[in-house]
Amino acid sequence: MNIHPTAIISPAAKIGNNVSIGPYSVIEADTEIGDDCIIDAHIKVARYTSIGARCRIYFGALVGEEPQDHRFVKGMKSSTEIGSDTVIREYVTIHRPPFDGMKTIIGNHVLLMAFVHIAHDVVIEDHVTMANHTALTGHVHIGAGAVLSGYIKIHQFCRIGKLAFVAADNIIVQDIPPFTMLHDNGFIYGPNTIGLRRAGLDDEQRAAIRKAIKTYFFKGLNGKNAIAEIKKEPVTAEVQQFIDFVSSTERGIVSPEPKLVFIPKK
């Protein structure tokens, strides 16, 4: 264990093996830091936070702090849970929920780049990448393997589906389905072709996803009729995930590219 003498660590914190904690960092009570973590300088890990093994937290990050929410009352025992092998870069802020027993959750192998903000009650699944200055408000849910480019702002309660790609400088106020790509003009362009390949989906799986996205967004059908059309053919596991997502939306689904009448095949 390598702990700088200026670090302030509560006796009630649980620190794993081979953990490094840098100068002037603060680790509050009722926290857990897993084995082989590296905590840089000037970091605060706030109360009721757990961090999995092999995480790296860079200079100036604030992890598990009280939420920016009028409903929060001092002493509430909400928590922040961070998985293993996650990287939190400079000046990231992560807040816990405003009510007892609730959690802000960040999964395994997540990369949060500099100045990202994660508000209360957010859930980020495994292998998500979020670039600089992206901000998530309360109750946002990000599906596994999604990639969010920089300077994105996401309205509370929005969902970003599994393996979706969101281009930079977008303001998101509705749900983005799994496997789709949001263009930098704020419209759905088609499937996240590169992401699907990197995730190891084969030609047949990708073709089924592409066809479902084309039917739902680019055939001029309303949501209900588009889903019925998709179901006329055998439904793969990935297409079922797409159907389940769009069927359960509460905020609505982001619109397709208005000038696009077909999806380029790649």
Number of domains: 1
- Second CATH tier, the architecture: 3 Solenoid
How many helices does DSSP assign? 4
In the CATH hierarchy, the third-tier topology is known as: UDP N-Acetylglucosamine Acyltransferase, domain 1
| Oligomer kind | single chain
| Count of beta strands | 28
Over the alpha carbons, how many angstroms does the gyration radius reach?
Answer: 20 Å
Supply the CATH class: Mainly Beta
Ranges with pLDDT <50 over ≥5 residues?
A: none
Order of adjacent strands in the largest pleated sheet = 1-4-7-10-13-16-19-22-25-27-28
Overall spatial form: elongated
Can you say what the CATH homologous superfamily is? Answer: Hexapeptide repeat proteins
Mean pLDDT: 95
Helicity level = 10-25%
Cα end-to-end separation: 50 Å
**Which structural class should the secondary elements be placed in?**
alpha/beta
Major sheet: 11 strands, mixed
Please indicate the percent range of residues in DSSP E strands (runs of 2 or more).
Answer: 25-35%
